[in-house]
Design a protein that fits this description.
The chain is built from 21 helices and 27 strands. By secondary structure, the chain is of the alpha/beta class. The chain has a six-stranded mixed β-sheet with strand order 11-16-15-14-12-13, sandwiched between helices. Strands 4-3-2-1-10 form a five-stranded parallel β-sheet. The chain has a five-stranded mixed β-sheet with strand order 19-27-26-21-22. Helix 17 links the parallel strand 12 and strand 13. The chain is globular.
Length: 777
Amino acid sequence: MLKRFKVVLPFVLMVLCAMNSLNSCQPAEGHQKVSYLDAQAPVANRVEDLLSKMTLEEKVGQMSQYVGLFHLQKSADLNTPIDLMADDANAFYPGLSGKDLYDLIKTGRIGSFLHVLTAKEANELQKAAQQTRLKIPLLIGIDAIHGNALYEGATVYPTPLSLASTWDTLLVKTIAQQTAREMRATGSHWAFSPNVDVARDPRWGRVGETFGEDPFLVGEMGVAMVGGLQGDRFENPDNVLACIKHFVAGSEPVNGLNASPMDVSERTLREVYFPPYQKAIDAGAFTAMAAHNEINGDPCHGSKYLLTDILRNEMGFEGFVVSDWMDIERLKTVHRVVDSQKEACYLTVDAGMDMHMHGPDFLEPVMELVQEGRLSEERINQSVRKLLEAKFRLGLFENPFVQEDQIATSIRTEAHRSTALEAARKSIVLLKNDNLLPVKGDVKNILITGPNANNHTLMGDWSFEQPEENITTVVEGFEQVKPAKVKLNYHDMGMQVTEITSQHISEAVAKSKDNDLIVVVVGSNSLRYQSKFKTNGENIARDNLDLVGRQQELVEALHATGKPVVVVLINGRPLGVEWIAENIPAVVEAWEPGSEGGQAIAEVIFGKVNPSGKLPITIPRNVGQIPSYYNHKRAHYVKKYKWSKTGPLYAFGHGLSYSQFQYGEPVLSDSIIKSADTVQVTVEVTNSSKLAGEEVVQLYVRDLYSSVTRPMKELKGFARISLLPGETKNVTFRLDAEAFSFYNLNMEQTIESGEFWISTGSSSANEDLKTTKLTIQ
């Protein structure tokens, strides 16, 4: 058991032991059999029957969410008081004890919890809920962003940006299915995932929890994640609720800082930020989370335009909306569009909010607003219906408890670890290779060093500390994978990217002399349990994209030795590594590949695995060239930067292989079509090397002339294929009207007649594409 749980569990047990009533908190026997407790009755009927029996307080209680006891104790242990409005990682409720919290549950004033980090606590909370008058179970949510990684012992998969680098939607769906099983086994029912923000500013710390910069790719990954988490019907006991977030456009903040304002045109909202949400809603996503930020002066948490007009009425969303951490309160304290918490509650519920994350100061104000006639009880019923529907469909009324003695058979199984390893292998992007990799047979001694060589940063954000034996570091992966004849020399320079010293650098240079190859592992640290050293992740924005601390100096010193150097990047956002790209012969972008990442990195470097990852986001040269994304307008680069190269360092979709792939010209089923027609695009791809490999074939569309300016190219299809040496495959894409539509000057979605370029190839870079022309009449 890790140290933090040694602290938390005694606190939890103390609270539970002090509550003698919990010893007899199983459902009372002999209760009257009513319709809502009939598991065979239709869910809609059960919801209405239960709703008819609930008091107003019980209804608003279902809309109220609190944090688990771990957060309360963690905050109590802090040396200095925290500011709830400024801290998104800790929580406390002044004057509210653990026993008080259980009293709120037992009187029906709490309907949901988040971040309950042990199955024992989940069961005890559910036992308390069984003491309520109507025995309504609790809905427990958790940030299971890449596996249920906040739970000790869970499988930690690659982070979403890494998963997007696989361009493998079936694999992502499998990961979501496995995540759901591990969540249900440990007491959670609701994943605050997927994040379908379109990331267009690498200064923003949360890039790593997105699927990158492209609306099409983000949408496809989001659909896969929703399908895996919820299944076709989330009544299955192995499924959980998905939550699409954060609605909307918080991923291109005006200054790169999380929650800062967003000024954006309706065109950009509809063509860039809305489409992934629409796809996820069409796939059945049952919950959504509002964004921290404001849109053109309208805070998302109080926006009836966004939460009702767009999300529900236009997009057809039929689930429930939850607020983000304390953001209803921020309508008063930050955005200042209201002057009291009561008015904040009115604004958000009237706008379409269904649940408050998290804590007090919500139930009482909402009840007062109903009693005063400002909010109707039917408006409350609208929210509660969806919350109850979720609980019925998840089967929580029949079985809210977890079998604690069965957990070990359900989490971090061999099958789950195998999937995590496959994902790590497919996510690694080989950015550059001047014939240095894979490691050649004449290499006998390898020096491996760097602050990320032997630590757990490869887990990424939204992970808590995991047992050492569950994580394979890069050094450990090298020891497992290297040939017996190769000697590995590890130079330990600590485990923090910010702590490199002159002595570390000089010692690494000295040790390089007797080695044939140097592997230096650098990047960032997204681990939220190492907050002092965190350089990436939620609320960790940066005003530059350089390697933190003295990592660049370390790389340059090792390069100056004259020895061949491989740079491995473990990082949660694009870094401006232009010097490295120009001077180092081999560069590996590993992102944050999860618990099996060390093995996967070593396998790629030694050639046990042929790299196949592709960038889901552009890597810019430096912070001064932001914004830098591939689907820009033609005028974006009409002018050039003085004294530096203009354009991306590495293009969206880029990624090398040890194989060589040759592309034929794209062939259309018809060169002239009508706007309502579908056209097929076929491209021939050949593995012209002697090594089997996998390739991600990409298709882009460009509208040559239009009534409003359009992007230079837009991704409209992709396919991951495997090819044996010398093998050729034909890859066929189908493009329908949606691939060619856009919003005209009147903001009407339309297709205009004219010519389109259809391009296929290995990346978005012009030199990697072959193009044909399509005419639409």
